[in-house]
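Lecture notes, continued. The same structure-token format from the folding unit now serves as the input rather than the output. Read the line below as a description of shape only.
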């Protein structure tokens, strides 16, 4: 796998990924538009999960292009990209099984969100966050789960409403897995490290 890291560090590749993530972030906030209109202001930062995750990664890429690291944003990016990337893939697969079909947007969401999860992990050797950054990120992530499943601010998939308790349970453990992966790939002492040049 290490053959891919010089490619990821290439400035042209990072600029392309920056463009893709900006477009994806804008589309993500648009996708949430109607739900955001109905969301109380106090909950607004916690509703558009996936576009906020890709927005974190936009800032990570900007920092890399400036030959800098913004560690807290990196921690937020890897955890939320993996969590909400995998979450959306699973939810859209569930929609397929519940409805017996999935439209083109659903397939696009599966592909794009899986790519989100993968890019967050692939760039892990370039991250420089420490324990306290991951702790802050864990608090943000688990607090978001409380907002979603206690105050019911989760992304709206009406056909899955009857499974909300099970989805909430799955989401909690997906959060724990995402935090653990961030530690494994970015903090443990024998991890593979690279510099942006």
């Amino acid at each position: 796998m290490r053959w891919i890291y010089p490619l990821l560090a290439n400035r042209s590749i990072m600029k392309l990924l920056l463009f893709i993530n900006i477009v994806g972030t804008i589309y993500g906030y648009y996708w949430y538009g109607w739900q955001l209109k109905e969301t109380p202001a106090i909950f607004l930062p916690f509703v558009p999960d996936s576009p906020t995750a890709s927005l974190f990664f936009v800032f990570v890429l900007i920092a890399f292009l400036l030959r800098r690291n913004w560690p807290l944003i990196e921690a937020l990016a890897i955890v939320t990209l993996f969590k909400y990337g995998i979450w959306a893939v699973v939810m859209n697969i569930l929609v397929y099984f519940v409805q017996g079909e999935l439209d083109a947007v659903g397939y696009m969401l599966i592909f794009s969100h899986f790519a989100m999860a993968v890019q967050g992990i692939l760039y892990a050797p370039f991250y420089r966050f420490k324990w306290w950054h991951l702790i802050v990120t864990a608090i943000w992530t688990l607090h978001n789960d409380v907002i979603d499943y206690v105050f019911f601010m989760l992304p709206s998939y009406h056909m899955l409403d009857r499974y909300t308790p099970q989805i909430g349970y799955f989401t909690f453990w997906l959060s724990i897995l995402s935090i653990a992966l961030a530690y494994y790939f970015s903090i443990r002492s024998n991890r593979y490290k690279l510099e942006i040049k």
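Point for the exam: The chain has a mean pLDDT of 94.
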